[in-house]
Amino acid sequence: MRSTPLVAGLVVSAAIGHVGYPIALAAVARRRQPAPRVDPAAWPAVTVLVPAYLEAGVIGAKVADVHANGYPGPLEVLVVADGDPETAAKAAAAGARVELLPERRGKSQALNHGVAAASHEMVVISDANNELEQGAIAHLVRRLSEDGVGAVAGEKLEGTGGELAYWRFEAWLKRNEDLMGTTLGLDGGLCAVRRSTWPVIPTDISNDDLWVALDLMERGLRVAYEPQAVVREDSIGGTALSWERRTRVLGGGLWVMWRKRQLLDPRRGFVSAQIWGHKLWRSTIGPLSHLALLLMAVRSAPGSLLARLFLAGHAVGAASFAAQQRDVRLPLPARLAAQVLYLQAVAFGGMARCLRGDRVLQWAKPAR
């Protein structure tokens, strides 16, 4: 594959999201020091909001997990059962306050209802199927008590191997963005918000966490990141379930960015840079550039050693992915190669879903 300006440009474009933006971010953030964490003078009352649908088998354990987290102030556990009487009954039996919606509305609208119904200004949101590490709630509230902070993102740990490496990469990005003032890496599995600044999520939005982060940042509020607030979640399961969730999330995220496209203007400063670097480029332009390089390599392979090596690397990644589906244990480099190829494929699946208007607001999920 000849080294031409086009090839060089495509290489740079393919690498911006996963390499270029992180390097630039780290170079700037390394000059910043995190502010000292200070406990509030009095720990405020907190509502822990758990949106739940088909969670009857785990909701009791979730309520107990929240109460056992060691928060030093008053604590309310509020479960919003999204058109699910069985989950509502189990949550009430476990000691939670329960709001039962008369019909399923989807997670975004369950969150709207729950935040409005919360008894307290400080609201911690957590999914029903995850487990909080000790002290996570207090760590979130400590950051949310800082001036100008509208939300706090916790740290999510999920899966093993390449999948876990992906979440650690996301955590690294959020840590450096936080040093710059704000991060858009809010995850609905564990975060904290203020009831008074909650942005009501529109009915056509499925990616509640990204909408909340961008709306708060648009209003000049910070989204902080607290790495000590850790939540652990099992991997979603097989490839089919993972593909469905990831393409749905990516397609829904692209729709959010389109709805908030005014923030893409470079004059918005760091907010714009984050959207382009952290989300948009590596979900669209980067994968398209990668595909163009792959097609050029196929055409150039007979006369180019570099092209053949490029294709061989993809073959290794594809073979590693296939081996993982058979539960073959692989070295970390092979798992990472498989994860990178899979995420590139997910990007195309997400783009396709966004373009055809496939915004699933009430997705199918297994009962737990």
UniProtKB/TrEMBL annotation:
Annotated source species: Goekera deserti
GO molecular function: glycosyltransferase activity
Highest taxon of source: Bacteria
Lineage, highest ranks first: Bacteria, Bacillati, Actinomycetota, Actinomycetes, Geodermatophilales
Pfam families: Glycos_transf_2
Name the UniProt record assigns to this protein: Glycosyltransferase
Glycosyltransferase 2-like domain segment(s): 47-175
Transport among keywords: no
InterPro entries: Glyco_trans_2-like (IPR001173), Nucleotide-diphossugar_trans (IPR029044)
Record keywords: Glycosyltransferase, Transferase
